[in-house]
Amino acid sequence: MIDHEVLDTGLGDEDDDDFDSAAADDELLPTDRFLDRELSWLAFNQRVLELAEDPRLPPLERANFLAIFASNLDEFFMVRVAGLKRRIVTGLAVPTNVGTSPEDALADISAEAHRLQLRHADAWSRLVAPALAEAGVDFVSFASLEQDERNRLYEYFHEQVFPVLMPLAVDPAHPFPYISGLSLNLAIRIRNARTGRQEFARLKVPPMLPRFVEISRDGERARYLALEDLIANHLGDLFPGMEVLDHHAFRLTRNEDMVIEEDETENLIQALEAELMRRRFGPPIRLEVTEDMDELTLKLLISELDITEQEVYRIPGPLDLRGLFGLSRVNRPELKYKPHLPTTALAFQPGDNNERSDIFSAIRSADVLVHHPYESFATSVQAFLDQAAKDPQVLAIKQTLYRTSGDSPIIQSLIDAAEAGKQVLALVEVKARFDEAANIVWARKLEKAGVHVVYGLVGLKTHCKLALVIREEEGSLRSYCHIGTGNYNPKTSRMYEDFGLFTADEQVGRDLTRLFNELSGYAIEKKFKRLLVAPLHLRKGLLRLIESERRNALAGKPARIRIKVNSMVDEQIIDALYRASQAGVPVEIWVRGICSIKPGVPGLSENITVRSILGRYLEHSRIFAFHNDGDEHIYIGSADMMHRNLDRRVEALVRVRDQAHLAQLTALFDLAMSDTTSSWWLDHTGTWARHHLDEHGNQLVDLQDQTMTDVQSRRRARATR
């Protein structure tokens, strides 16, 4: 069993010998013990694609998974592939499988990405589009339209589309135009009727217009045409006097990996804004073209964009299926998941007289663990901050903000609190990838309202999800805390699965007070009682917890490790789990995305099981559970098992103590790891196999549906008391 006081004092250096001896054991582990992280990420996106291919899912949800796959792959190229190429070009070390060169690793990634993009296109044309058509949502070509439909579309084109189109010629007087990243374009070859000379033009498909144009609607049946198809069939109106010879769609992905030397800049915001401008002009890393593009046009694009043949992706179907996100507006509930209305957490539900719940009174009574989106974000986190902003007894609010929206009620509550004269500190992470520009905007909005806005520590992203409210009660101050696994974002809280712990525990309050003071100052405090904080001692704390389970197993005591994360790639953590497995510790990993651990290898990881669950909600919470000789230690927080989370971010895990909460988290893990629950299983080769049907072909238990049922059951049980 772990000595609580040793753990609570911040895991000082006095026990480093434990880790030195463990590190020596690494030399005995096989050199090929890690799966490639990039290929593992592509395997994750394949799991998303498998949901789109599943005929048992509602058709509009299948289309949504195709859009998610496309969006995910865009980000993979913009960040992961771009970063890998940058490291190769600059000569920096590139993590690859042993015996694999960086160039070979990039070739492997390209080959797998090509395969998946072809499978993605096939899933749309052969599976999802026909399923939608059968349900009355039909996507057709311009060539299949009747003349009266073409006439109506001609009017729509000239009224709604033509005015915003900007054809750009390429000739001696007009250089090849800048092609923005992720834009959908038409490459057009035309012939001058007077000179007979062939010319090239580029036309950008306007991103502000609906990607799919409604042609007709008859009751529940609707027909749609892709916007680029509509434009392509009216090119003559854009080039009067010219003969349109050919046209093809293409799309470019650019390097959007950002590098800011924070210790060399005097103004982080200005440096970030300059980097955002540079990112728009990042070098191309992927060119998607339609399968029928002629060689002349393709060679021109390759030459002008300075891209390699390996970076060209020929797609047998429409490009940029992110446009399928727009189908969420189609009003066909029977073609979607059954709606789920989040319930208010039991502790925060109104009393018998239906008066508004007193959030602070509920938290004083006992810790509250809230599970989103099954339990409402609006009636818990939002209500907590809203009540704090309006309560005259509240003196101060401190909060970290990583991703949110400028119109968020969270932002408004902080503004209201500041305008009411309270002390308000917002630690804004302006370096949150792809949200940088938005974060700068609303950070300035907070500053104008009188909120103290700080941007964290140089060289570290502040990724932890923390809120602290200081309230005066009977002449003394009391701290109310929220530690979460997900962002303070009302929009994503309806789609992301996360946990949040509310507590008035004095020790947690002191920990958060110290942590916020250090984040707005110059250094990270080394010693916390209820928190494990990165970058100084989260890694060491987890290694100590894993080592304790290993020693308990060797001593013949019960032992078990359970970890739920988005990504599992940190080599030191994985090696510690291998050693625990070798000692006989059952290790259960529940991972959504990347996983570099190899389960089921004899003599190394036969006691390690890895599962993945994907569904209507994005599994986002992080849970770390250790048997600890019967005194269960369970932590929740924001950290994944990645180098950046453990070494280059401020992260925080909080230990859950309430027995009912421990039972709830344990039951969730039991359900996730059960052979009767639908999930993907990882083997030692890196292959994920989907297990969603029993031997009779019946659907296995859907964890997310079952969790909805369990939450509603708890609510009904309370109502009948």
UniProtKB/TrEMBL annotation:
One GO molecular-function entry: metal ion binding
PROSITE patterns, per the entry: PLD
Catalytic activity line of the entry: [phosphate](n) + ATP = [phosphate](n+1) + ADP
PLD phosphodiesterase domain boundaries: 615-645
Acidic residues: compositionally biased ranges: 11-22
GO BP terms in the entry: polyphosphate biosynthetic process
Residues holding ATP: 72, 496, 592, 620
InterPro entries: PLipase_D/transphosphatidylase, PP_kinase, PP_kinase_C_1, PP_kinase_middle, PP_kinase_middle_dom_sf, PPK_C_dom2, PPK_N_dom, PPK_N_dom_sf
SUPFAM superfamilies linked: Phospholipase D/nuclease (SSF56024), PHP14-like (SSF143724), PPK N-terminal domain-like (SSF140356)
Database matches in CDD domains: PLDc_PaPPK1_C1_like, PLDc_PaPPK1_C2_like
HAMAP family linked to this entry: Polyphosphate_kinase
Function field: Catalyzes the reversible transfer of the terminal phosphate of ATP to form a long-chain polyphosphate (polyP).
Name of protein: Polyphosphate kinase
Source organism of this protein record: Microbacterium schleiferi
